[in-house]
Amino acid sequence: MQDFHYKALPINVYFGNGESKKTKSILAENGYSSVLVITTPEQKETGLNMAKQLGELVTDVYPHAVMHVPVSVADEAVEYATTKNIDCCLALGGGSTIGLAKAIALKTGIPIVAIPTTYAGSEMTTVYGLTENNLKKTGKDIKVLPKVVIYDPELSLTLPADISASSGMNAMAHAVEALYAQDKNPIISMMAVESIKALSQALPKIVKNSQDIEARKQATYGAWLAGICLGSVGMAIHHKLCHTLGGTYNLPHAQAHAITLAYSAHYNRNADIEAMDKLAQALGGQSHEQVGQLIYKLNQQLGIPLSLKEIGLPEDGPSEVARITCESPYYNPRSYERSELEALLQLAYQGLEPK
Q1: Whole-angstrom distance, CA of residue 354 vs CA of residue 345
Q2: Buried/exposed code over 99-134 (b: 16+ C-beta within 10 A; e: otherwise)
Q3: Model pLDDT for residues 225-279, shown as the tens digit of each residue
Q4: Which Pfam families does the record associate with it (predicted)?
Q5: pLDDT, tens digit (0-9, with 9 covering 90-100), for 289-319
Q6: Which of 192, 272, 325, 344 would be a feasible disulfide site paired with 263, CB 3.0-4.6 Å?
């Protein structure tokens, strides 16, 4: 076995059906008594219900989180949070909500308690992202790592099957890239394989029956593991592509990840053969050569949109994304070949199988 360095994440994690009903006592146990509940506009009602449940612990509900955390939205939230005498941001929702709470924490140091309702995985990481002038920039800071994460699979029962599928594939992307990360290690690789297996098994069941609580629990488990992967090791080409698609074209985050994953995995299929063989086997295949096709077929099975065109990428998008990606690349186990990337992105634009 190789030598390695592994840093465990300092988070209190609560996991189980109905666990969110214990939020008030969990907040009190952790010493929080003046809480700002953060949601998206669409989840305002859910936030108000949570506030009712928390009673005197809540200062206000802030329902203004949006996708990709624009700097202007983050600045307004920071200003609002600093005018209130709060001691905690309770992020209730998916990546947009948790992302906004992280933007507040980054500037103010106000701690986060996260209750994820999707499979995004951001809640288990020190990674934050902000978008300005059509460019999404990411960073890492221990201040944005939630102090407490409460996983309640029951909360995901209201998540529509199509969004569940895309969100689950977004989570899987974190585990996939962990397998060939620059700072990969045996512990995270083991978690990544387990995450990919759990998600690939649970998501088709959820699409078949969105009320299957055992499948929801398995998907939540897979997403939790994927979040640990994302929070513990670095990202590579797939995340660079998706950050460009989101920051430059404001494409929906989960769908962009889900579609692009097949092509980025295919691009790296021969770059780290041991990792890609593990990926293929976790997806029910055999060889590293199959990884792109296996993910593409899983997306087909889940009914996820297959083309970037369908979710809003313009015709000149593939060449522009390839240019931006190659001009400011993340680490990747193989070099960035602009022409090959553009060709793959053209296939992704049309929704054709990677080859």
Answers
A1: 9
A2: bbbbbbbbbeebbbbbbbbbbbbbbbbbbbbbbeee
A3: 999 999 899 999 999 999 999 989 989 989 999 999 999 999 999 999 999 999 9
A4: ADH_Fe_C, Fe-ADH
A5: 999 999 999 999 999 999 999 999 999 999 9
A6: 344
